[in-house]
Amino acid sequence: xxxxxxxxxxxxxxxxxxxxxxxxxxxxxxxxxxxxxxxxxxxxxxxxxxxxxxxxxxxxxxxxxxxxxxxxxxxxxxxxxxxxxxxxxxxxxxxxxxxxxxxxxxxxxxxxxxxxxxxxxxxxxxxxxxxxxxxxxxxxxxxxxxxxxxxxxxxxxxxxxxxxxxxxxxxx
Length: 172
Known about the structure:
Shape: elongated
Distance between the termini: 74 Å
């Protein structure tokens, strides 16, 4: 009986922690894979893995980077399993849940066009609010490498958006 009550308490604590982050985890998985179905599968499997190792989470304040790491690893595992390129630009419109300005769509497209090693730290920082130290831990690289990737990602975004603006002006 006592074990059942403790398990129920753990379950509620898990649901409280994970429930608050589920949407962010889905968005992160969607940014990684560019496929809504894959993102759902990644988050679902990640939640199962997180529950199985929930006893190992000692500090609830670290739940977010812990879950992001699980999602990232699960994404890499599933991508390795599937090994198919399912990038569909029409999927990009599903990422946002609100009506957006045209510039936001251009920015989203430019972010999606970035190479994985630039897009992932940018998404973790800008969309998910992780610090560079947390991103370094999640990706298993140094903080200096993250700072370099973020700088290069922003430079590539700037170039892409300026080229897009110049092309738009040329058509007018």
